[in-house]
Amino acid sequence: MNMLVSYPWPGNVRELENAIERGIILMRGTRLTEKSLPLTVQKHVQQHEPDGNRAPVSIFEAEKQLILKTLKETGGNKSRAAKLLGITRKTLKNKLDKYDES
Question: How many CB atoms are closer than 10 A to CB 16?
Fold first, then answer.
């Protein structure tokens, strides 16, 4: 979780989606681990958080954390957050309802 949250995601939600899809393809077992994520993500986190002791994360939690982090960065502006995430405002609202964060 820390790895996904700490990475800046310059490609926004599309880059996150690609990283998660890649991770699912490469994962062993039923949990997504940092070793399944792209090297760019792994290296960024290793440079900024050298402890390396992170727990596996669910896709649901990764998406939730990215959305909440983006909302925080935009001061709660849902239209701006949706634009940064590359999704519609309605999709953002639906996801927030799913997370009970509206």
Answer: 21
